[in-house]
Amino acid sequence: MLKKMLVVVAMFGVFGALSACNTVAGMGKDVQTGGEKVQDAAQDVQKKM
């Protein structure tokens, strides 16, 4: 039962993300921007070491 609920919640999350950026291409750009932010943060940590 819990597993089914988690799947439903995950599906709503995916649908919400897709509707927020309207297209798959838009979602790809959002993911790319997120990846760039993670990369920038990792470089900042490296500089501090």
Keywords:
single chain; 49 residues; mainly alpha; 2 helices; 92% helix; 0% strand; lipoprotein; Entericidin
Kindly estimate the percentage of residues that lie in beta strands according to DSSP.
under 5%
- pLDDT under 50 segments (min length 5)? none
Largest sheet: none
Instruction: Calculate the terminal CA-CA distance, rounded to whole Å.
Output: 46 Å
- Please report the total strand number as a whole number: 0
Computed over alpha carbons, the radius of gyration is: 16 Å
Secondary structural class: mainly alpha
The SSE string, one letter per element, is HH
Overall outline: flat
**Overall pLDDT metric:** 80
By DSSP (H or I, 4+ residues per run), the number of helices equals 2
Helix content: over 70%
Family: Belongs to the EcnA/EcnB lipoprotein family.
Keywords: Cell membrane, Lipoprotein, Membrane, Palmitate, Signal
Signal peptide: 1-19
Protein name: Small secreted protein
Structure description:
- The chain is built from two helices and no strands.
- The longest helix has 25 residues, at 24-48.
- The model has no long low-confidence stretch (mean pLDDT 80).
- It has helices spanning 2-21, 24-48.
- Helices cover 92% and strands 0% of the residues.
- The chain starts with a helix and ends with a helix.
- α1 crosses α2 (24-48).
- With 49 residues, the chain is mainly alpha-helical.
- The protein has one domain (2-48).
